[in-house]
Amino acid sequence: MNTMNDSTALVTGANQGIGKEIARQLAAAGLIVYLGSRDPERGQRAVDEIGGNARLLTLDVTDGQSVADAARQVENLDILVNNAGISVDLNPVTETDVDAFRRTYETNVFGVVAVTNAFLPALRRSARPRIVNLSSGTGSLGWSTGPQPQFPATGSLAAYRSSKTALNALTVFYAQALAGDGFKVNALAPGLRKTNLNVTAAASGGDPAEAAAGAVQLALLPDDGPTGEFLSWDGTRVPW
């Protein structure tokens, strides 16, 4: 986008981690940025820290009424970053109960559908609507299979990884359904970052700001940019 001062973005799960860094970088670029946060106090602290045109939007992606209330507060929207995500169980599929899958999918999959559909009217008012879905390289079936998989072939983190595989499919479907309206819809693999997602992430040294920069690039894609793609934080393509 050439002009950003009148552009508006919403980042879900933006009171911490990668989401907060995405909001920070978009605000620094001159956008009005709504920080979606389940907890209004934590969200307001993040807004105060970022400053500029950052604004709080109380939003629980798993609560239909919360999503509807939030959507009514945003009339115009250029960018939606579906960042909110959880990881509640590190176990392999054989040791993961159904409730862990339900809880994970409620946020990582169903929440994305709820938020995206609720904010579509606002996004349709934009001349250059963009949707970025924060996925994971661990959701790549290509990277999880073959003679040299990128991840241990143990079926671990089954609920989280499969939810991101489902999110990748949603990315393709939204890109196809909205292509005629000028939307660019892409998924990002942010890499392992030091966040509160789970114990593995918390113990890592990856910089959330580096991953956020990749998301911001997708959020600000020009008209000839890609859509329906799964891209790594460094811009390279990730196999589905």
Can you offer a commentary on this structure?
With 240 residues, this protein is an alpha/beta fold. Helices cover 42% and strands 14% of the residues. The protein has eight helices and seven strands. Strands 3-2-1-4-5-6-7 form a seven-stranded parallel sheet, sandwiched between helices. Strand 1 (8-11), helix 1 and strand 2 (32-37) form a beta-alpha-beta unit. Helix 3 packs parallel to helix 4. The mean pLDDT is 91.
By DSSP, the count of extended strands is 7
Biggest pleated sheet = 7 strands, parallel
Strand content: 5-15%
Provide the structure class: alpha/beta
What is the radius of gyration? 17 Å
Given as residue ranges, the uncertain stretches (5+ residues, pLDDT < 50) are: none
Spatial order of the strands in the main sheet? Answer: 3-2-1-4-5-6-7
Helicity range: 40-55%
Distance between the termini: 28 Å
Q: Overall mean pLDDT score?
A: 91
How does the SSE layout of this entry go?
Elements: E1 8-11, H1 17-28, E2 32-37, H2 40-50, E3 54-58, H3 64-72, E4 79-82, H4 98-124, E5 130-134, H5 141-144, H6 158-178, E6 184-189, H7 199-202, H8 208-219, E7 230-232
Parallel strand pairs: 1-2, 1-4, 2-3, 4-5, 5-6, 6-7
Helix pairs in contact: 1-8, 3-4, 4-6
Short recap of the structure:
This protein has helices at residues 17-28, 40-50, 64-72, 98-124, 141-144, 158-178, 199-202, 208-219, and strands spanning 8-11, 32-37, 54-58, 79-82, 130-134, 184-189, 230-232. It is α/β, with parallel strands linked by helices and 240 residues long.
